Amino acid sequence: MTIPPARIQVEHLEKVFAVPVREAGLRASLRSLVHREVREVRAVNGVSFTIEPGEVVGFLGPNGAGKTTTLKMLSGLLQPSGGKATVLGYEPGCRDPGMLSRLALVMGNRNQLQWDLPAMDSFELNRAIYRIPRPEFVEMRDELIDLLDIGELVTKPVRNLSLGERMKVEIAGSLLHRPTILFLDEPTIGLDITMQKRIRSFISEYNRRYGATVVLTSHYMADVQALCKRVIIIHHGNVLFDGDLATLSQKFAATKTVVVRFEQMNTSTANEVGVPDLSRYGTVVSVVDGAVSLSVSRDQVASITAQILSEHSVLDLTIEDPPIDDVIERVFADGVSGEAVPGD
Amino acid sequence: MTNTVTEIVLQDQIRASRWRSMISLYWMLAKTAMQARFQYRASNYFYMIGMVVEPTIYLVVWRTIAESSGGAVGGYTAGTFAAYYIVWTLVRNMNIVFTPFGWEIRIREGELSGQLLRPVHPIHYDLGFFIGWKVIVIVLWIPIAAVLSLAFHPTFDPSIEQCIVFFVAIWGAYLIRSMLLWVLGMITFWTTRVSALFEAYFMAELLLSGRLVPMTLMPGWVQGLSWFLPFRWTFGFPITALVGPISKTELVVGVLAQIGWVLFGVLLVKVVWRRGIRKFSAVGG
Hints:
Chain A is of the alpha/beta class. Helix content of chain A is 34%, strand content 28%. In chain A, a hairpin with a 2-residue loop joins strand 11 (283-288) and strand 12.
């Protein structure tokens, strides 16, 4: 059996920027005229991963982690300082038209449509740029308009659209050539909840319908949870985690949340809010409507739940992983302290 | 499997008829530029008025000088001055290209990154876009030229060869200026604030192109120098090709000089672009 070639292959990719630095003030300005100080910033520090065709991968990290730099290197906008990347069999830095006509990079804060014209005119221009045969273009355009529900928006000048509306037509414009690789950099940034959901469901549908590979960066965990089975966490230019979203919690969450709902109050042990005091079992996170959320060390969950069940009249008990935001925060913290985790 | 086959077929279709696709791209870019210009009707008229003020001042000054000097200066009468500067307005509009100042914005605002993601060299966007711009400008120019003609009574009698060369020369001028200003604009890859350098270029162009005065009125050494620089082939030559006086040999030499400068410009764009884009993709945008 032949293994299909990986669409995106990254080996020890590096990017080092030379950034001019100077102190504040007039004297420093004058000094910089004669002697310019430059500092090296290692934005990406030897990351390696492989993304197979059709995967939807979340690329996560705090600001300045190197996410966008990596995406820019993969789409050919930046030349790597070291290492190697292959996208669709091409070296991205060569910006081969064969590669460019099959990928798209959508940046949430960048506008690539004609500002003064309705998006429909920009779509026509994209048809000519990507040399899309008219029947395919019309079919794809109408499909995108339908999927994103932008029928009324594409005839208004882009400058008259709201941020969310513009993002939707921007995405449509970027996908007319039916890219097989889609890099999305903060696609839902600044959008309201409804619009975020719409964009998410669209990305999911696009991936399902065309088998496209999607690499997504987002600070909204809802995007990641809704779309990505796999996440790559990058921090200070290093990959801290590469694997299933589900295993992320298992690896990094030191605690689990035990939520206990009581059948009847044990008055002898009930505290002032009417529920038993469970602080001896773990850290009480919240008490809401008679349900106590308890943060318990992962290795003690079994013994503590057994203890609670035997000592109290419990109506319901659930064990949950902590919120993904908390887990990722923990990953960043571990990464900072040097406990980087090699990719799975 | 079906997906792969569709992909291959689509790619084959995309590769087919490269020239036809390029013409289609230029047409779409020109159409987009026209649509964008139509959005701002009032601004178009103000732009044209601004464009007419400069030659009208030159025209009034030189006409007055010609009349006070017994009817002609350096062979130019009031009528030929009028012809020179009215044709000047058209040539000036043909010479409107993407400016180096636009490059500063293009890089600072990240527009270039968007263009680099597309499978077409960005110079085609500018060339196509400004061709469309010219269509609008020429339509607006016709009534202005009519009014100027009624006011200043131009005298010129071009031959058919002159008309043909003029038509070729205005596009040659467009290409030369596009290439050279692209090269100048690409300096922004290395340093972001280069407006002073651009101004120096435009000053040289003003004096050595025939924009300020017909080249035959400039000192001999300036005229001699201008033959070896690109400027006169973008202003003075196209205007003189139509208005005269010009010999058939000079027409041929002018067209050959334009071809030479276009080729040199293309070469320069290629070399500087390759180095500039390497620099850009090293530091990001």
